[in-house]
Design a protein that fits this description.
globular; about 140 residues
Length: about 140
């Protein structure tokens, strides 16, 4: 009897929560917003710029110098050092990093710190595809 009651409670909770998830647009039909940022419902949330961010582009990263500590990404997507965020397109994991210029041409790969690579859920031999955002 206790199992049946517990199952019924879980079922009721699941039905109640599912009604909250169906609404992907505001009542006026506009896309939902998060802290002033417009959200594209067709893309994962972490791959979209948050308030105060601008999307710089995508890059493929390799492991950078493992003796250099910190959370950083050396990338041709920036021309000067700035704060930012990177998202692993495969895992959806996100980490805030220092964006450091490489001086290379656009389209050339990037180098990611060991600490950042671990937080993004990649193997040390992976070449993760990253979406890069700068903090404004």
């Amino acid at each position: 009897m206790k199992i049946a009651k517990a199952g019924l409670i879980v079922l009721i909770a699941a039905v109640a929560v599912s009604g909250c998830m169906k609404r992907s647009k505001s009542r006026d039909g506009a896309p939902p917003t998060i802290v002033g940022a417009t959200v594209d419902p067709t893309k994962p949330l972490l791959e979209q710029p948050l308030a105060g961010e601008s999307r710089l582009g995508e890059t493929v990263a390799t492991l950078g110098d493992p003796t250099q500590p910190g959370f950083w990404l050396r990338t041709p997507l920036v021309s000067k050092e700035t704060k930012g965020r990177v998202v692993n397109d495969k895992t959806g994991a996100s980490v805030q990093v220092d964006l450091l210029p490489t001086g290379g041409e656009q389209g050339v790969g990037s180098m990611l710190s060991l600490a950042s690579m671990r937080l993004l859920g990649g193997s040390l031999t992976d070449l993760p595809e990253l979406t890069v955002f700068a903090l404004n």
